[in-house]
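Note on ligand handling. Small-molecule inputs were canonicalized before submission; formal charges were left as drawn, and no protonation-state enumeration was performed. Where a ligand contained multiple stereocentres, the stereochemistry in the source SMILES was retained. For calcium ion, this procedure yielded the string shown in the input block below.
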Amino acid sequence: MTSFLLPMVAIWTLLHVPRIESASKAQCIADGKRINAMKTGMAWAKPGYWTRLNDEKVCIIPQYDSPGTFSCPFDGFIGGIKLVHLYGKITCDSKNRYFQSKWGCNKDIFNPLGIFITDIHKRIIFNRTGSDPPGNVRVPWYSSELFDGSSEELVFNRMNDPVFANSNSKFFVWYGEDLINRDEQNNGGKTCIDVYAHFV
Ligand SMILES: [Ca+2]
Ligand SMILES: [Ca+2]
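Structure output:
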């Protein structure tokens, strides 16, 4: 029985080990391309997929000008941004424990959103609800039909007016009250996220 099994094991090994090696090499090449793209910003993003932009988690503190930041390792036109909650809560009033929220402040029945994505000049780059034009923030709260402060994800839609981004692009994820310096002293907590871009 043993003399029968040994050749079979040898044949299986010959058939399968090279495949494992080639898969590993392919992964190394893919990783190398991504790292190279991150260094040079020369790789064109693959359209039609959600692509994670951050390597390290992005964390937002809701006061004292403490937005999370991310950049874009690829060249491409971004039609949407998806923020995926990892951990943590934020609040517009740390004295009220019921106000804690992933994306805003649970202060009324709408559990409004208070997250804004801007450029370095604090201009909104990705629309809040899909209908607002890019511009400056005046009111630090908004609601959405699809998302609220307890959602696991928050998606910003700009499919009708995609934004070109490359390795020089830097984006900021703000808590609205911190962004416009209004009533931020009583805020608290921290929320940490991953950032995905939908390239078109
Ligand atoms: Ca506040
Ligand atoms: Ca501030």
